[in-house]
């Protein structure tokens, strides 16, 4: 009796529960197909969106995907890849053109060698940026430099930039005048890193340069050390004049008319030889050097490569201006130096000038 009542009460509920799992797969088949189709469409849209994003972000072009086969077309040639890559680059430039900051004119180290400033461009900010004001420790100073020192900062002497600018302008006038008169200018810098600025200054001033060790006796004993160096006779336009080789063999070695020394401490022997022969010198004098070693000192930091390059470039530009002035005067028929006379034999005169002795013109420049 009790079992019958339980079956009557719970039988209908058990019957409905047992039918639900059987009817659910058949009822949801169409719905699942629709859901799968919807998910496929969504994944395809996501694929296209990712493709567009990668086209904008990557450097290499990605071939388009076919909507039906989901594969790249076989006709995507290399030419199309190059075209798409260029188009991608242009899009990236358009997107990133407004990003970042704009750089104002800034310091570029190579400009002091490739395009050094002219003497008219000398300014205190330029000297300050090249660290020309930094001297040595106060314990290493030379009392003769007291007139060039501005003050002391953290135990280091500070060189007055006003004095440096004035002495550098004076040195430029001297180099310009010597070059204008056809003199030989020698630029010397034997420290590491000074070779390029020394060579550039010599090229601008049409002079000579030395970036290796100075050979002692090159001036005082020049006929033995430099006796085999070749010389030539040139006219006012620096054009060589042939036919004077025999006279040049008996002449002593040439001496510079002006010496520019970028590191006087290591080249005191050369400065001593110049003093013995009355050759004027220009030198970069730091607070630990003796300014009486050179004729025209330039108080500045000789340990700063940027400062040395600045001074060498400015002096080279001054020599270039002097050479241009000399060339302009030569075109006008004016010779800025006194030509040196040679004693020429009659037979050699006939060979060179065809018998016309008035046609002989000897220039004082040689190289």
Q: How would you describe this structure to a colleague?
A:
The chain is an alpha/beta fold. The protein is 46% helix and 10% strand. The chain has twelve helices and ten strands. The strands form three sheets. A five-stranded parallel sheet has the order 5-4-8-9-10, with helices on both faces. Helix 7 links the parallel strand 4 and strand 5 (208-210). Helix 6 packs parallel to helix 11. The longest helix has 29 residues, at 29-57. The radius of gyration is 42 Å and the shape is elongated. The model is unreliable at 18-27 and 346-367 (pLDDT under 50).
Features:
five-stranded parallel β-sheet, 12 helices, single chain, 367 residues, 46% helix, three-stranded antiparallel β-sheet, alpha/beta, elongated
Counting H and I runs of at least 4 residues, what is the number of helices? 12
Mean pLDDT: 80
Specify the biggest β-sheet.
5 strands, parallel
> What is the C-alpha radius of gyration, as a whole number of Å?
42 Å
Please state the overall shape, judged from the principal axes of the Cα atoms.
elongated
**H/E series, N to C?**
HHHHHEEEHEHEHEEHEHEEHH
- Tell me the structural class: alpha/beta
Beta-strand portion reads 5-15%
Total DSSP E strands: 10
- Share in helix: 40-55%
Walk across the major sheet and give the strand order.
5-4-8-9-10
């Amino acid at each position: 009796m009790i079992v019958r009542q339980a079956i009557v009460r719970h039988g209908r509920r058990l019957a409905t529960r047992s039918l639900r799992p059987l009817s659910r797969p058949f009822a949801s088949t169409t719905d699942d197909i629709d859901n799968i189709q919807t998910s496929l469409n969504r994944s395809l849209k996501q694929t296209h969106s990712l493709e567009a994003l990668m086209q904008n972000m990557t450097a290499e072009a990605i071939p388009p995907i076919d909507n039906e086969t989901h594969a790249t077309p076989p006709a995507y040639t290399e030419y199309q890849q190059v075209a798409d890559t260029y188009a991608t680059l242009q899009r990236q430039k358009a997107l990133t053109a407004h990003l970042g900051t704009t750089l104002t004119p800034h310091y570029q180290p190579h400009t002091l060698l490739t395009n050094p400033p002219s003497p008219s461009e000398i300014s205190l900010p330029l000297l300050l940026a090249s660290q020309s004001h930094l001297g040595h420790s106060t314990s290493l100073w030379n009392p003769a430099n007291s007139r060039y020192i501005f003050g002391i900062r953290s135990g280091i002497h500070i060189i007055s930039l006003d004095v440096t600018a004035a002495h550098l302008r004076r040195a430029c006038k001297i180099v310009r005048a010597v070059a204008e008169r056809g003199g030989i200018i020698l630029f010397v810098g034997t420290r590491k890193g000074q070779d390029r600025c020394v060579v550039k200054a010599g090229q601008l001033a049409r002079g000579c340069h030395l970036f290796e060790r100075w050979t002692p006796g090159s001036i005082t004993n020049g006929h033995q050390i430099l006796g085999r160096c070749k010389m030539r006779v040139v006219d006012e336009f620096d054009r060589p004049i042939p036919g004077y080789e025999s006279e040049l063999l008996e002449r002593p070695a040439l001496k510079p008319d002006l010496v520019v020394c970028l590191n006087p401490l290591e080249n005191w022997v050369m400065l001593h030889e110049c003093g013995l022969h009355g050759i004027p010198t220009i030198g970069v004098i730091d607070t630990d050097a003796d300014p009486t070693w050179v004729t025209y000192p330039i108080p500045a930091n000789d340990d700063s490569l940027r400062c040395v390059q600045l001074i060498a470039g400015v002096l080279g530009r001054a020599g270039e201006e002097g050479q241009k002035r000399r060339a302009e005067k030569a075109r006008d028929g004016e010779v800025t130096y006194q030509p040196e006379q040679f004693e020429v034999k009659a037979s050699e005169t006939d060979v060179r000038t065809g018998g016309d002795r008035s046609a002989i013109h000897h220039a004082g420049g040689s190289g």
